Amino acid sequence: MWLCLHMVLKVTKILAFQSLSGIYSAREFVWWYNGHPDYSSLKPDLKTSDSAVILGQGNVALDVARILLRPTTELASTDIATHALSALKESSIRKVYLIGRRGPVQAALTAKELREVLGIKNLHIRIKQTDLSVTPADEEEMKTSRARKRIYELLSKAAAAAKTSEADPDQRELHFVFFRQPDQFLESDERKGHVSGVNLQKTILESVGTGKQIAVGTGEFEDLNCSMVLKAIGYKSVPVNGLPFDHKKGVVPNVKGRVVSHTSGDISQTEPGLYVCGWLKRGPVGIIATNLYCAEETVSNKLVDPENRTDVL
Ligand code: NAP
User: Fold this and answer.
1) Where is the secretion signal located (predicted)?
2) Centre of ligand 1 from the C-alpha of residue 263, in Å
3) Is the CB of 141 under 6 A from ligand 1?
């Protein structure tokens, strides 16, 4: 009974605190430091405390963590927007927490991107040793995916190296926090309307069918203090006016880039002259190279379609 009441109160609080300042989507933050004209005036709160929380453990989460943690002397030689570089020079953020609802075997990272972050100068990596223990189901997942095994090995190696390194007061810290899912944002008592932390629910993994494990809340909660939250839990495309759209998958239904008028995938239902590529074609996954191959496939199909062919003499 207590648990039920507790849950109801928590849900009410989440809804009430949706609009706290200091909470940004990773997209807004990425657009800010990349100089997108609509977001150059974002002014993310980088000065209130030394801690930022990033929700999610995918490559976007890593990208934004890298911007917060990399020395600005190094960022200066990149094409980062000038306003972002100036703000980051003044930043007091020293600790970044990457929150994953599952474990190190399931982190949605790729090795190259993880290595880049682990290689940041003067960065202390923190991972709880207990989070690195693996279950038979984890072993099974790693057996079927070399990429997962590689990520797990990189994280384990980083944790072991951190244990033997000397503590340095100037060091910045990146905490990989596993088996925690966000439950509610907390409001600051001193600064009304501003976020002061995230309440996290501990999770365990449950197997669901072939090799997949999902996070399930345990009913135990803990608070993590911070003055900035970045939500990096993935993307979903929005429909484009006049185009068919598969709301469940968040894609324009297509067969190898040729837009089809409904979601059956029946090639005979192709919309003549309409093609799609990128996340609108496949969903919000894949590294840069994936997008290159994806575009190549769409363009090749466009070139061979009869309505687009011109005879060359
Ligand atoms: P992503 O890879 O789908 O990762 C999303 C993360 O958020 C996962 O850790 C996921 O956990 C978590 N998550 C999702 N829903 C959640 C919820 N309700 N509560 C708590 N956690 C939740 O998404 P992304 O990082 O936005 O990246 C999108 C795509 O772009 C990816 O394919 C990525 O590789 C790619 N990308 C590539 C590069 C590059 O090439 N350098 C850079 C950036 C992004 P679960 O696994 O448990 O769902």
Assistant:
1) 1-16
2) 25
3) no
65 within ligand 1 shell (Cβ under 6 A): no
Q: Does the beta carbon of 58 sit less than 6 angstroms from any atom of ligand 1?
A: yes
Q: Which residue's CA is minimally distant from atom 15 of ligand 1?
A: 233
* Residue spans in the chain of domains classed CATH 3.50.50.60: 2-235
> Residue 132, by phi and psi: left (phi above 0), alpha (psi -120 to 50) or beta?
alpha
pTM of the model: 0.90
Domain 2-235 has CATH 3.40.50.1390: no
Q: Is pLDDT above 50 for 9?
A: no
| Token pair for 260 | 């089809």
Of 116-120, 128-132, 165-169, 271-275, the range with the lowest mean pLDDT is 165-169
- pLDDT at position 307 is 77
Q: Please write the tens of the pLDDT for every residue from 177-190.
A: 999 999 999 999 99
- H or E element in which residue 98 lies: strand 95-99
Pairing of strands 258-260, 270-275: antiparallel
